[in-house]
Amino acid sequence: MGFGKNNVLHRNHFRKDWQRRVRTWFDQPGRKLRRRNTRAAKAATLGVRPLQHLRPAVRGQTIQYNSRVREGRGFTFAELKEAGIARKAARGLGIVVDHRRRNLSEEGKAVNVDRLKAYKARLIVYPKKAGKPKKGDSTAEELSAETTRAAIPLPPSVLPEQPRKITTEERNFKAYRALRDARAEQRHAGAKKIRQQKKEEEEANKKK
Question: What is the DSSP letter of 67?
Fold first, then answer.
């Protein structure tokens, strides 16, 4: 601890009761056991219901993480509609719904629709009263079938592709040029449309 010039000496406090201020983690094994027992108790109370809600498979944000597939918040209305599941009914079946999420690609939508259909095929809905089953409840054969509580796994991040030769068309394709042209076309689409309309109007006026 150095001092310079004619400065005031530091008032160091070396006699604090530091033992009271130290955070220990000696109860970690006990906490681990308690969490395990809580999970087991919850699973027992749930009966044959799935342990976790069904969530969609989504891509991570940004270039760094978009190659990874993870669980999202909830399914979109479009995905539920295509899978043939009502919005309100989904919440009672353990399917999470997110009204804010939007589908930005057909591929991503198809993955989640297949996920919902697979879940629906495995789903067994027990009637509230055994003697009076309602519409949408499972049949007697389905009720007697074996049940599983294993979660539906996420799809693979990248589908493996067999090695093949590069075609002449792929070799001659200029990806950077194609992207720049597409951007320019999108940027100038409005101005082109206005010019075309003006040209058509001028031609129409000349004919008059």
Answer: T
59 Cβ neighbours under 8 A, 6+ residues apart: 65, 66, 67, 68, 69, 70, 108
Q: d(Cα 105, Cα 112) in Å, to the nearest integer?
A: 11
Cβ atoms of 108 and 58 closer than 8 Å: yes
Q: Which of 177, 176, 90 is nearest to 136 (CA)?
A: 90
Q: How far apart are CA 152 and CA 113, in angstroms?
A: 13
Residue 54 has a CB neighbour count (10 Å cut-off) of: 22
Q: List Cα–Cα distances, 66 to 97, 104, 112, 161, 202, in angstroms.
A: 22, 14, 17, 19, 50
Euclidean distance between CA atoms 90 and 50, whole angstroms: 14
Place of tokens 């399914």: 75
CB atoms within 10 A of CB 184: 10
Rounded Cα distance between 82 and 112, Å, is 10
Q: Which long-range contacts (CB under 8 A, 24 or more apart) does 81-86 make?
A: 82/109, 82/113, 83/113, 83/116, 83/117, 83/120, 84/120, 85/116, 85/120
How do residues 135-188 score in pLDDT, each as one tens digit?
767 776 667 777 777 888 999 988 888 999 999 999 999 999 999 999 999 999
* Residue burial 58-68, b: 16+ Cβ < 10 Å; e: rest: bbeeeeeeeee
Of 134, 141, 123, 48, the closest CA to residue 83 belongs to 123
